[in-house]
What does this fold into?
Amino acid sequence: MSMRTFNQTETDLAFQWGDKYFKLVELILKISGDEENDFLPSEPSPESELKFRRLRRWFIAHQDKFIPIWSEFWRDKLPKRYFEDNTDGQEYFENPFLMLYRPENLHQLAYGLGITEHIDTWEPFEQCADIVNDISVEFSLEVLQFIQYIGEFTEDNSDDKIAD
It folds into this structure.
């Protein structure tokens, strides 16, 4: 099977997507807390909400160009366990990032990730759902592998090399 190569525009988009994904994970970790360090879940600040909304708009604006690039990497992974319990499973399988930027605000995201009990009020569960760990560790490792994969299959622009 021959591997498809990615042009510079595709590579740049993939790297930007990865960077913005990790900024989103940082927001999730900020609101989900940290049991080991007795850091309780905290209600999103107005600044965090603004960051989330900017990231969300960016993801929505770029998803149609990004998902075909992502699918080159993702199609053979079959990470069913991320999506089994979700009614939108197939859609999230094709674009697993969607579950993180589909909600309109961080309260809705926190509710969707099982951080809070209610969608409109901040009442965090004592223990956050395992999905936060799956996203912040396991899925993040997939994203890092994706970035490495894109780097390996980027077209070699030999015209850019300086002659000896």
Q: What stands out?
A: Residues 8-155 form one domain. Confidence is low (pLDDT under 50) at residues 158-164. Helices lie at 8-32, 46-74, 89-94, 98-101, 106-112, 130-152. The chain is about 55% helix and 0% strand.
